[in-house]
Write a structure and sequence with these properties.
about 200 residues, globular, mainly alpha, about 65% helix
Amino acid sequence: MFDFLQLSPWGIIFALVAGYLIGSTPSGVILARLFGGPDPRSVGSTHTGATNVFRNVHPAAGVLTGIFDFAKGVLAVWLVQHLFPSPWVVPLTGTAAVAGHCWPVFLNFRGGMGVATAAGLALWQFPLVLPIFAVAYLVVNFFMKHQARTMMLIAAFLPLMLLPFRPAPPKMALAVGFAIVLVIRWASDFHRIYD
């Protein structure tokens, strides 16, 4: 049944669980505590990502949070691929890692927005799409003037941005996974009024 993935059912479960748990690592909360700052879930946007930590805890803590969040999805995929060398590990583990960052089990499912973790994986798997994504975000946000709605729209079109590069099916699956997770996550800020 799972032959087309070149993975056993146990391999699929391991990829999803490992990706989710590594993605759930609460970088922002850990660094906020190390810097003696407030819990990012209690200040600003209440998200645990780099932007909120930078603004409301400490700039250095925010930068380090961004680095760790950027790297943890890549680390998750790299580790699982060494155990289960299938190209389908990439979309399974990568999407699970982004979901873990957004809804971490260690923080009662209150995490970040998934962008840094997704960007780290995207830079590794389809780097040429990142500039297109960034320009599209800037243009759309200029007109919409709402970060969450812009991100939802651009994320939804991420798989289409990848099409001209004729990606392998696992990479397209990763883009679709990103799109689904980011649209759902940013929907929580759909009515947010930004400062």
